[in-house]
Amino acid sequence: MTKPMRSENFSLFPSDLKHFCKEVIIEKFDENGIELIEDDVIKEERIEFFLNGEKFLSVMSIAQDQDAHIVGFLLSEAVIQSFDDVDNVNISEDGLKVNIVAKISQEGYANLFKEKTLTSGCCVGVTGNADKSFECAFVNTKYSVNANDILNNMRSFNQPSNLFEYTGCVHKAELVLEDGTIFTSEDIGRHNAIDKVVGLACMAKKDIKKSVLYASGRLSMEMVVKCVMHKIPIVVSKAAVTFQGIKAANEHGITLIGFARNKKMNIYTHSGRIDV
Amino acid sequence: MTKPMRSENFSLFPSDLKHFCKEVIIEKFDENGIELIEDDVIKEERIEFFLNGEKFLSVMSIAQDQDAHIVGFLLSEAVIQSFDDVDNVNISEDGLKVNIVAKISQEGYANLFKEKTLTSGCCVGVTGNADKSFECAFVNTKYSVNANDILNNMRSFNQPSNLFEYTGCVHKAELVLEDGTIFTSEDIGRHNAIDKVVGLACMAKKDIKKSVLYASGRLSMEMVVKCVMHKIPIVVSKAAVTFQGIKAANEHGITLIGFARNKKMNIYTHSGRIDV
Predict the structure, then answer these.
(1) Which of A16, A115, A176, B69 is a Cys-bridge partner for A12, taking CB atoms 3.0 to 4.6 Å apart?
(2) B163, B229, B230 ranked by CB distance to A20: nearest
(3) How many angstroms separate the CA atoms of B38 and B23, rounded?
């Protein structure tokens, strides 16, 4: 029915790894200044799920186990009761479409499109609005920040907050404005933390066009979309970035920085805003 | 219009911290066996967002900066263009309802309910289906596992995969069945990784009622819901758990284990399945 199952601990060969990654040229900053290097970053893709011929969902994920993903998702949402309900599941040649033919619960299927509760792990990017408004947007703010200032800010940002120390369970976002004002917020979800910190700044009637966003989580495309929507020119994380994140940042004028740790950081796009 | 803004680095007092947490009694396992201790865990809450009198979204998050959250969210989704479009925003006394009165883009608002793309940070728990099917479900599978076996499995699970080492950007889930079969999957999203691993096992026609799920991310309620839906009796993470996660695990018969690191782990619920 599908590809063979992987029923033991799997380990990918280096050549397989490339399949999920994209090679990019980045600027690596350290004590000796900036160096251009090649680097591989993970590539998330928009996988389309089709159920009995009808497209019902797009999911940003990596193109691996897509058939298992749709099966697990439908089980988990009670649209199917067991794998016995599945007649067929297959993956398109390019890996981006998954088609499943299954006996479904009509009620369960209808509910997929009703109540919308964003889970703690997620938020935003759920609509096409952002896509549309940001399609032709380019953030060309002339604003530059010293590389060492960013690393210094990152160090204090990385001090665990009381709430993190207490629970080990929150993400944090911080917006540092040109005039030195700092807004900080935390949440269980990394998307929520960013929405909150932007909200705080806007509610304080602050102009955030010249600011740097520090985020505790990985920088995937949704984060870059948020920066574009809010015209925040620079975003920094100690964590990794994804390929779609880099692509969007490049196209829309965002300076994207990842792996900012100690005295190093990787500048993926629009490094002109970083003074060395 | 709202509460005063926090425009500088904020630090919560220990008494404030309690506000976001819930005290629970847990069983702490280490080399000396099990000890009952009190512990505080983060409490996510379902916050309801109302726009011009109409409820339009529920978000699982922590009850802090809720007003900023709704403002940031609407800006980010292009439903409002700037904070000038907002006439009023207020938070209900219990902190769980946020009401915003604003001039909105009708098109943007309509789009909020159209296209649904799950972002890499999220997945599932988006519908009411799971809630409904799991409401009266209780996983009472008699299945026990030795505590040290769990810690040993956790050690090998925690070995970074090639893809993680390569990119620093993926979550992992592993399902270890009673017969020793192991299914593993990875994805950018922690929810996706779990859906995939369950899908793999089901597609291999394996019974997962006696299995342990290892997950690299935090265990919030959505993860427990998945375990209940799939009747996986035990779930383990090296990361933190949330209060709603504990509550759901307790009510629905799931053995929930967090902070499983080296020779220690916290057993939050249904410890009867863990042999010491």
Answers:
(1) A16
(2) B163
(3) 7
